[in-house]
Amino acid sequence: MLKLIKTEVQYEDTLARVYELMQLDLQPDTKESDELEILSMLVKKYEEEHYPVPEPTPLEAIKYKMEQMKISDAELSEILGARSRKSEILSGKRKLSLSMIRALKERLNISADILIQLY
Question: Which domains does the chain show, CATH number per domain?
């Protein structure tokens, strides 16, 4: 019987069942595949409530996107406007300006909500 996960024990039991179902070669639109999908949603809801993942700082987001998109330091300097600004930004000595936030949002697709956070 499917129901909301309210305790850590229920969470662990549900995870065990999810892993069990994941080991099977499930076909779409079967009872088991539907169960896996629903249990995954329940696990996600429980994890969001009990194990929230904090948003990254602006610097963490920039560094992550640079790595993910294989952006070089020179390319980041171009986005930010100058090499010295890039090193000051990445070391935390200088805050992002509005024009830098706009450029990072457009070029690296980083949410403005993340970029405007205090750090």
Answer: 8-50 (no CATH), 58-115 (1.10.260.40)
